[in-house]
User: Fold this.
Amino acid sequence: MNKTVNQKAWFLVLPVLILVGFSAVIPLMTVVNYSVQDTFGNNVFFWAGLDWFRDMLESERMWNALGRQLVFSSIILAIEVPLGIFVALNMPKKGFWASFCLVLMSLPLLIPWNVVGTIWQIFGRVDIGLLGYVLAKLGVNYNYTQNVIDAWATVIIMDVWHWTSLVALLAYAGLQSIPDAYYQAAKIDQASRWKVFRFIELPKMAGVLMIAILLRFMDSFMIYTEPFVVTGGGPGNATTFLSIDLVKMALGQFDLGPAAAFSLMYFLVILLISWVFYTVMTNLDKRDGV
Amino acid sequence: MAKITLDNLAHSYLKQPKSDDDWALKELNHDWADGEAYALLGSSGCGKSTLLNIISGLLRPSRGRILFDGRDVTDAPTAERNIAQVFQFPVVYDTMSVGENLAFPLKNRGADPKYIAERVNAIAAMIGMEDQLRRKARGLTADAKQKISLGRGMVREDVNALLFDEPLTVIDPHMKWELRTQLKQLHHDFGHTMIYVTHDQTEALTFADKVVVMYDGRVVQIGTPQELFERPAHTFVGFFIGSPGMNLFDAQVSGATATVQGVAVPLGDSYAPVAGQVQIGVRPEFVRLHAGGEGLPARITRVEDVGRHKIVRLDVGGTAANAILDEGTPVPAGADRVSFDAEAINVYADDWRVAPQSLQGRAA
Assistant:
């Protein structure tokens, strides 16, 4: 086949390049720009090289935030994924109650993040919140503004409440795609309930679960609004996750250089972990195929 | 292995079936003899799969009982019935290897590992997958997956019955023959009671000792392939079995003569006066074509040469009909009449076959 060479074709790509340039590349580059410079104000910048990155890597504050973040995301995944699967397995398969459950499950997903935060902030208050008040009446010493464990518990339960639905809905979609014949064959083969789950349901859900895990990991790793509204990162720095710390640094202290370096590393960490997740899971998939 | 008895069995998918049409399976009494191979033949949606699922216990019948060797199992779960069933579309456990798939039903019943290995190897040889036992089942072709499903159905030796629900639909024609032959062989060797659901008459006729023809939720005839061919009990059987199916003509019957379109057609036997909508049925194999003379006026619309024989499409006074001519026989020049072999004519009233007088009182 003869290819016609026409360099004007590049103009057709141009709009996209411009769009991506303004929406992603340029903002990211300004961050890169800040991360290698220092300023004493008055819009005067001078070269700082990789100093900020070095500072950040040596900063205990960032490592602590990263540690908290990893613990938080791990707990979230460890609770939401099994719980979501469990909920999906117990949802009605069809009829009125199936639709009812679906709507009910979707509700938390439709609530804006800072509203979720506000709901739980009030819900947990000892003086007026239903949860806090009841717990206090029952004699439980619960106070998320002062007790680290209580603050963590509140933030985690809030996230579970908010996002387990997502895992459940995805898992439910996976389950719905399994033809009846599989369950019938399993009955004929006299497979136990556990084996039906292990050899039919779980493999059929693997694809959507991978997406669910990836989404939940990324979202929980970037969480900002809800804990910020509920605990403001406290007590002390106990629930100061990476995003909260970053905002404190960039906007609170106006340390643009370190914050920029921090952002870039944050971005790379998410990218790296997501990539590892994805690669490991798709490889597991492929290995099965051979 | 067991004799399976259906006692006044009927099923409807609706909670409160009202009219006759609401029943997916109309009342049915039948014994599936121990160790016989049956084919359950019928067009899609006639209740074949419903019946099969009732036998295996995946479905509870709305009415009636089902007995294995005289024991009522109507409410017994599938596991208790010890049945093997193969479905239309392949069901394999993706994450297991081929061998693990085959071993699964045995493992679930806690069989001895040595015995399992032995059976798995035997079955793998039968389905031609010995060299793929260690391969994961995921990513295999539909063909191979269905072979695994078949294998899983056959791996248990002590089953009460083997049920097949159109198992060869996804398998390519060459392999179909081979697997069907192997199934027959298996039946021959072990004498399992087998019920094979299909809508393919060739498959039914080659596989089974007895063919059960279903139509609209009802069993219309149970018989050997020859009986179905020669004496279809219902016009549906005549039409469904044979290619092309039986020719039907509206007629009046009195004694040993039928009158079709004003022309007298001699019958092989005499009949008592028949009520209802009366038709005569004659298979294309027994339709003779000739120019002039006796018979019904007919016009040839098309001749199809299918190799072994020729199918002549006819227009007999407005009714479409077919005749089959042997390969060597030319279509008679100027043929404008058809006549029928008197012995091969069946008489139907309201779609059901009427027994001739000489056989009255006996089952037709």
